[in-house]
Amino acid sequence: MVYTETIDLQGHLFTAVTVHLPKTTLLTISNECGYIMCGALDVGLLNEKLADRKIIAGRAVGVRTIDDLLKAPLESVTYEAKACGIEEGMTGEEALLKMI
């Protein structure tokens, strides 16, 4: 099953997507600038093989719900995210608000 919802963070809208797969769940929250995602996100791939795309993204591990993703500290972020002031350890919500 795939679920989408709109999340309002301080008046800014983001799209949250939950994808239930066998034995795992993929979670992402995005806007037109970037996104945060569960542990399935390969930040190394984005930084190395897809660097030319300048993707703003962050990864949180151990999350099971969209609410967890908002509250969890980011474990890793892309180089482009760092250029926007997004750092490891920030909560998902803090990182998303830097993407506006």
TrEMBL record:
Pfam families xrefs: DUF1805
InterPro entries, per database record: DUF1805 (IPR014931), YunC_sf (IPR036493)
Gene3D superfamilies cross-referenced by the UniProt entry: Hypothetical protein YunC
Protein name (record): DUF1805 domain-containing protein
Organism: Solibacillus palustris
